[in-house]
Structure formats: C-alpha cells, structure tokens
Specification:
Blueprint: H1 4-13, H2 20-31, H3 39-52, E1 56-60, H4 66-74, E2 80-85, H5 90-100, E3 107-111, H6 114-120, E4 125-130, H7 137-147, E5 148-157, H8 177-192, E6 196-201, E7 207-212
Parallel strand pairs: 1-2, 1-4, 2-3, 4-5
Antiparallel strand pairs: 5-7, 6-7
The structure holds S-adenosylmethionine.
C-alpha cells in the first residue's frame, strides 16, 4: 500500500498553480510562519467557490488574507467577502495584500474578536469559511448558523487536528485537552444537528462541509 504522504504529494503535484500575487503572498506567509490553508484545502475551497458561485462570503480567521484572496479569485473576482481577524500584527498585512491584489473594494476586513463581531452581524451569507481558533468553534456556531443562508454551506478547516481528535482525551497532552474536547463537541453538534447535513473529509488537516437544510 502506497503511503498517504506520497499520495498527497502526487495530488499536490497536479495543482495547476495560482496567480502570481497569491503565490507571492503564500511564500511570504510561510516565511513568517503565518498559518494558511494547505494546498489540498486550497483546491477544495477553489472547487467549492467555483461550484456554488456565492455572491457573498463570510470568513472567520483572515490571518494575512491568503484564503480570502484565493476565494475571491475562485469566484472570478465577483464575490464580496467579509473576513474577520483579531491579531493586530496581521491586520495591516492583510489590508495591504488586498490592495496589492486589487481586491480592496471587494474584501472587507472586520477587526476584532469574532465572538463579539459575529454576534453583532446581520444578513445572510450563502458561504461561510471557519478558520479561526478551533477551541472557539462551539461558541461561534450559533451566530454562524444564524448568519448562514438556508441551503448555504459552512466549510470548517483543521477539524481533525493532525489526527489528535480521534485519540482519547488522555492520549493528548494536558494542555491540548480543552481544544480536543471543544473540537469533538463541534463535530458532534454538526453531525447530530437537525439544521445541518455534514460530511467530514479526511483531507488536509480535516475539513467539514455542512449544508444548512
Ligand atoms: C489559521 S489562521 C487563518 C488562515 C487564513 N484563513 C488563510 O488560510 O489564509 C487563523 C486566524 O484566525 C485568527 N483568530 C483566531 N481566533 C480569532 C477570533 N476569535 N477572532 C478573530 N480572529 C481570530 C488568528 O489570529 C489567525 O490569524
């Protein structure tokens, strides 16, 4: 049996590439140790945005704007994106990246804690990408669900925590136990809710796709 790492690098080798500006931002983010979506996740996001063609996208967890720009490009530069970030150091970098890509009219960055911002937000988004602090997902879910349109899709990244989530809580280090139980709680809610139909995909660091029924 061929090992999983080789399969993933083979799949990634078929990636047809990104725009010059996205490649530059990806390189800069990696050099600065900014966590951004992995390659397999990039392909999935591009595919989902191209398929769903959402006019509006809400992203929770902007970092330096890489995935916002990826989704914007995948929408044919048509989608209006609202993204949230609370890490002050990353906010000006993200804003500058939106400017470099010519996307500053289409991407709005809301600065501050997503827990508070989402609570104040109104409107309906047909596509929501959750990529913030994993331990906060259960707390964010009620507002995210309220803001997701009927028939809309909620995409959540890093749901398998490099496999840790499958382990017993005693097998993970003490300091990771809270996040372990919160991610499990979030997964349970998504998969047992009357509101969502959810699939868990074992790609990248684990992804859930949830459709609001
Ligand atoms: C994995 S990074 C996002 C990466 C980005 N989506 C990408 O792929 O280009 C997660 C980001 O969420 C931010 N974050 C975490 N918790 C947050 C919160 N409660 N409110 C706002 N931002 C938050 C972190 O500061 C971090 O920059």
């Amino acid at each position: 049996m061929i090992d999983e790492e080789r399969i993933v690098s083979f799949i990634n080798s078929l990636d047809s590439g990104k725009s010059q500006i996205l490649s530059e931002i990806e390189k800069e983010a990696k050099a600065d140790f900014v966590p951004i979506v992995r390659k397999e996740m990039q392909s999935l996001l591009r595919f989902l945005v191209a398929s769903y063609k959402p006019e509006k996208i809400l992203e929770v967890g902007c970092a330096v704007g890489f995935s916002s720009l990826l989704m914007w490009e995948a929408s044919g530069k048509q989608a209006k994106i609202t993204t949230i970030e609370n890490y002050e150091k990353r906010i000006p970098i993200a804003k500058n990246n939106f400017k470099r890509a010519g996307a500053e009219e289409d991407i709005t960055l809301l600065e501050g804690d997503a827990t508070l911002i989402l609570h104040e937000m109104e409107g309906a988004y047909p596509f929501i990408f959750m990529d913030a602090a994993k331990g906060q997902y259960p707390n964010l879910l009620p507002d995210v669900t309220r803001l997701l349109s009927k028939g809309g899709i909620l995409v959540t990244d890093n749901i398998l925590q490099d496999g840790d989530v499958c382990e017993s809580r005693y097998a993970v280090t003490r300091r990771d136990r809270t996040i372990h139980s919160r991610v499990r709680e979030y997964l349970y809610e998504l998969t047992h809710s009357d509101v969502y139909e959810t699939v868990i995909l074992n790609i990248a660091d684990g992804v859930t796709l949830s459709v609001k029924k």
